[in-house]
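batch_manifest entry 22 of 60
target: Inner-membrane translocator
source organism: Allomeiothermus silvanus
requested by: lab member K.T.
priority: normal
notes from requester: please return tokens only, no post-processing; we will run our own comparison against the previous entry in this batch. if the run fails, retry once and flag.
--- input ---
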Amino acid sequence: MSDFFQFLISGIAVGSIYALAALGFVLIYKSSRVINFAHGQFIAIGAFAAYALATWAKLPFWLAALLAILATAFLGFAVEKIFLKRMVGQPIISVIMVTIGLASVLDGLMYLTPFGSGNFSYPAFLPQEPLRLAGITISYPQLLAIGFTALFLLLFGWFFQRSTLGISMRAVADDQMASMSVGVSVERVFALAWAVAGLTAAAAGIVVGTVSGLNQDGLIGIGLAVFPAVILGGLDSIPGAVVGGVTIGVLQQLAAGYLNQYVPGGGTEYVLPFVVLLVMLWFKPYGLFGIEEIERV
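--- output ---
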């Protein structure tokens, strides 16, 4: 039984990272109906920016992480202003192709930096000895992942319920034309959504780097790995991103613990999330918490 709880705790920690990364997808889709295929690159840029500031500029890690998160948020803001703003009114497939092209460009640019190949790790800033309670072990990086996600959820909850900008974003997500008619700046909301998505992507990247080290391909892969979590929870649901992320993380750990021994070669934890994705697209394409849109033709 202790094995089950160990897998459960590990799954919640991994799922918290997925939830953080999935929030960026959901925010952009919820406000502009665009799926950002460059999200994995944002995750990698935020993680390596924190590494550069902590090791090259010798900044305290917490300050380096904060500056990296703010810098990636500005990058998201700039990307929307430079590339996406010009695509307003264009077919959605054209906008999606822009994000795919942007992902390729950012990918190539990162390979030109010293971080393009090889593995790196942040300076040690957390206790190395894990916590042990009733036979269950949890490391401090895992606690960091869970704590970071809880903190961001509280901040987002306050932001969307209490702040003027958050209420504007909800209004734009519900009806852009109605929002514009009452004076809400849709352009500002779009730019804000991309900035917040960059912020959450950098936070997810820093947590991944703390838990498992820094590798460009691995960090970019997180952007693809969260797709099942986003589809499971619902593309337009912030609570769904969290539920989907944690669910996928727990399923992966349970699969690794209980199924790999019966499958030659193992690896069921990498396959199971995409099985879930296919099942959801088949039976409930709007996810557990997404809004089902009905169009008359």
